[in-house]
TrEMBL record, chain A:
MF-aspect GO terms: NADH dehydrogenase activity; oxidoreductase activity, acting on NAD(P)H, quinone or similar compound as acceptor; quinone binding
NCBIfam families reported for this sequence: PRK06076.1-2 (NF004741)
InterPro entries: NADH_UbQ_OxRdtase_su1/FPO, NADH_UbQ_OxRdtase_su1_CS
Localisation: Cell membrane; Membrane
Membrane topology: Multi-pass membrane protein
GO BP of this protein: aerobic respiration
Protein name per UniProt: NADH-quinone oxidoreductase subunit H
From TrEMBL, chain B:
Gene3D superfamilies xrefs: NADH-ubiquinone/plastoquinone oxidoreductase chain 6, subunit NuoJ
Pfam families: Oxidored_q3 (PF00499)
Keyword Ribosomal protein annotated: no
Native source organism of the sequence: Sulfobacillus acidophilus
Protein known as: NADH-quinone oxidoreductase subunit J
Signal peptide per UniProt: none
UniProt lineage: Bacteria, Bacillati, Bacillota, Clostridia, Eubacteriales
EC number of the protein: 7.1.1.-
Length: 329, 178
């Protein structure tokens, strides 16, 4: 029995990583094709039918590229930083339930790797470590643009993490649990939470874009000011690690948004896991849509928006939810 | 027990690394290793909320601010050690360390401790347990600490506020001319 559990766990981990890597590859292709569509051009469509094999070609190119290291770089930290970025990005997804529990061979299989009673906080703990990848990468490169990118990343992510945490608190108070599986089960009985928590959802989504450094919050790698920000000096697979981490973070933010506000795997007719992926795909489309539409923030506006608007707004919504949940009203 | 041993070694390496490392950024990294090792200690004690809070607050927020400052101030990697500004620091520190360690040893021998209470209180360190402690009997202290920290934060903002800009443009012009 014990052995079976371990085998099951290993299978789940391998599957999760495979899904995330596949998700990364085709989110990137989707993004490039959609950006092409938004900008009235074609995008990559030469490799395979409709560009379907483009990610494989990109992967091969990345593997074969020379791995550069600047002369003055801090060698250990320079190598460590992309690993941290990728590792934290992958581990957050371990607590997200991809579907309802399945019963096979008399076994109940949960579609998440771990189901801790405070799953949401564990996810936050891992994702809060992701910023080290950017800061350390920027510092270790010993390049002024990289350093500025790393410093911007740390300031931005710290600022927006607060509002994000407050936005999520409303869900925890409403459902009375921080377990992601139970949050979905609550929504099965009481309806999806996006409507009662609409303010929290909007704040969560905005901060989610900022936390993943996507346009319009991509100041750490603003190419018109900082060359490529914290990953200016990286090439080959180390650069690819940063890239993969960014896209997987996008998938993670979408997955948590779906779990908290849009009923996770719930939905009629189709199997639960398909519903989950459909909802995540919709979120990913919105991410790409926003990137194609909005220009980048100016740095002071970014800070003002985070501290002077999002944080108070999240706090007010949080207090409102508290009043409502406690039954004072 | 094996897990405890390994973690203890990792935590010690982290702690020693903080003071031995030459680069401030490396010191910060060792401190993060130490913090994460402590978080895993909490998980072994099944205090999962404490563990998550430890990582979110210390590793995820405070150390990021540390790194922010450290990377900003030590932007150029300089392998050569700066000369000590105060002379005789090492000797003083060594003497003080020996005195403190000796004192602790004496106290330990004179007052052999009672057996440390084994077993943990109910709900130790999980969400409900922490909530009961913070919002139950200790709420007054929590509120007091929160007020104190808020006062400190506001105080720093007041002390560091930029000099007030002059509203009158003519006065500013005169000032520039003089």
């Amino acid at each position: 029995m014990m052995l079976l559990q371990v085998v099951l766990l290993v299978i789940k981990i391998v599957l999760l990583i495979a899904i995330l890597m596949g998700g990364f590859a085709y989110t990137m292709l989707l993004e490039r094709r959609l950006l092409g569509f938004f900008q009235l051009r074609l995008g990559p469509n030469r490799v395979g039918p409709g560009g379907f094999l483009q990610p494989i070609a990109d992967g091969l190119k990345m593997v074969l590229k020379e791995d550069l290291m600047p002369d003055g770089a801090d060698r250990f930290v320079y190598r460590l930083a992309p690993v941290i970025a990728l590792f934290t990005a992958l581990s957050v997804d371990a607590v997200i339930p991809f579907g309802a529990a399945i019963h096979i061979f008399g076994l109940t299989v949960y579609l998440d790797i771990a189901n801790p009673s405070i799953g949401l906080l564990i996810a936050f703990a891992f994702s809060s470590l992701g910023v080290y990848g950017l800061v350390l990468g920027g510092w270790a490169s010993q390049n002024k643009y990289s350093l500025l990118g790393g410093i911007r990343a740390s300031a931005q992510i710290i600022s927006y993490e607060l509002a994000m945490g407050l936005a999520v608190m409303g869900v925890i108070m409403t459902t009375g649990t921080a377990n992601l599986y139970k949050i979905v089960l609550y929504q099965q009985h009481h309806g999806w939470l996006w409507l009662p928590q609409i303010g929290a959802f909007i704040i969560y989504f905005i901060t989610g874009i900022a936390e993943t450094n996507r346009t319009p919050f991509d100041l750490p790698e603003a190419e018109s000011e900082l060359v490529a920000g914290y990953h200016t000096e990286y090439s080959g697979m180390r650069f690819a690690s940063y890239y993969i981490a960014e896209y997987i973070n996008m998938i993670t933010v979408s997955g948590i948004a779906v779990t908290l506000f849009f009923g996770g795997w719930l939905g009629p007719w189709l199997p639960p896991i398909i519903w989950f992926f459909i909802k995540v795909a919709i979120f990913l489309f919105v991410f790409i849509w926003i990137r194609a539409t909005l220009p980048r923030f100016r740095y002071d506006r970014l800070m003002n928006f985070g501290w002077k608007f999002l944080l108070p707004a999240a706090l007010i919504y949080f207090l409102g939810t508290a009043v409502f949940v406690s039954g004072v009203l | 027990m094996i897990a405890f041993g390994i973690l203890a070694i990792v935590a010690l390496i982290g702690g020693i690394g903080v003071i031995v490392a030459r680069q401030p950024v490396h010191s910060a990294l060792f401190l993060i290793v130490n913090i994460v090792a402590l978080a895993i200690f909490y998980i072994i004690l099944s205090a999962e909320f404490l563990a998550a809070a430890q990582v979110i607050v210390y590793a995820g927020a405070i150390m990021v601010l540390f790194l922010f400052v450290v990377t900003l101030l030590t932007a150029g990697k300089d392998d050569e050690e700066a000369g000590e500004e105060l002379s005789g620091q090492r000797i003083t520190a060594g003497v003080l360390a020996i005195l403190a360690g000796g004192g602790l040893a004496v106290v330990g021998v004179l007052y052999p401790s009672q057996r440390i209470q084994l077993g943990l209180p109910q709900n130790f360190g999980n969400l409900r347990g922490m909530g009961d402690v913070l919002w139950g009997p200790d709420f007054v202290y929590l509120a007091a600490v929160a007020l104190m920290l808020l006062t400190a934060a506001v105080g720093i903002m007041v002390l560091n506020r930029p000099p007030r800009k002059k509203a009158d443009p003519e006065a500013r012009l005169k000032e520039r001319e003089s």
